[in-house]
């Protein structure tokens, strides 16, 4: 494991414990050169999932893309990083549990919107406006009216 501070490749494990979801192990490490501490996560390497994009091209599934989209939607909102990571974790769990090895990006986007709607309505509308590619203010207003009607 390479130290993120000095790049040295040797470190010692100070503490190991499972994460709350029990899907990975959190390890606190200390660099043997600079003595700074850092955290790593060890996960089981799962069967890969392929995402089918709108243009029918295929890409390897990347959890970080979901997390980045969620973080962008939640920017300047009262949503903690832990809550955002939970959204990404929950979606990832659903994808792996579905046993589908290929999934359309649209289905992933729908899952993100579903989770954001429960978490923060403003973040949901932000994500939906980009994901659904609102053409004009009327499309935007229709989405807001639908959200209000649900309440």
UniProtKB/TrEMBL annotation:
Keywords: ATP-binding, DNA-binding, Metal-binding, Nucleotide-binding, Repressor, Transcription, Transcription regulation, Zinc, Zinc-finger. A zinc finger (unnamed) spans 3-34. Binds 1 zinc ion. Pfam families: ATP-cone, Zn_ribbon_NrdR. Residues 49-139 form the ATP-cone domain. Its cofactor is Zn(2+). One of its GO terms (molecular function) is zinc ion binding. GO terms for biological process: negative regulation of DNA-templated transcription. Negatively regulates transcription of bacterial ribonucleotide reductase nrd genes and operons by binding to NrdR-boxes. Belongs to the NrdR family. This is Transcriptional repressor NrdR. It comes from Candidatus Ornithomonoglobus intestinigallinarum.
């Amino acid at each position: 494991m390479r130290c993120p501070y000095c790049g040295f490749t040797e470190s010692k494990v100070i503490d190991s414990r499972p994460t709350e979801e029990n899907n990975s192990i959190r390890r606190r490490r200390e660099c043997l050169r600079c003595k700074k501490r850092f955290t790593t996560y060890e996960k089981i390497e799962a069967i890969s999932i392929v995402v089918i994009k709108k243009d029918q091209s295929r890409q390897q599934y990347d959890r970080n893309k979901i997390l980045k989209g969620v973080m962008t939607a939640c920017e300047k909102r009262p949503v903690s990083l832990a809550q955002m990571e939970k959204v990404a974790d929950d979606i990832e769990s659903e994808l792996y549990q579905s046993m589908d090895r290929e999934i359309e990006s649209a289905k992933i986007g729908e899952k993100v919107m579903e989770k954001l709607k429960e978490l923060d309505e403003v973040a949901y509308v932000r994500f939906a406006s980009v994901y659904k590619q609102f053409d004009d203010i009327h499309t935007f207003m229709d989405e807001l009216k639908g959200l209000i009607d649900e309440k």
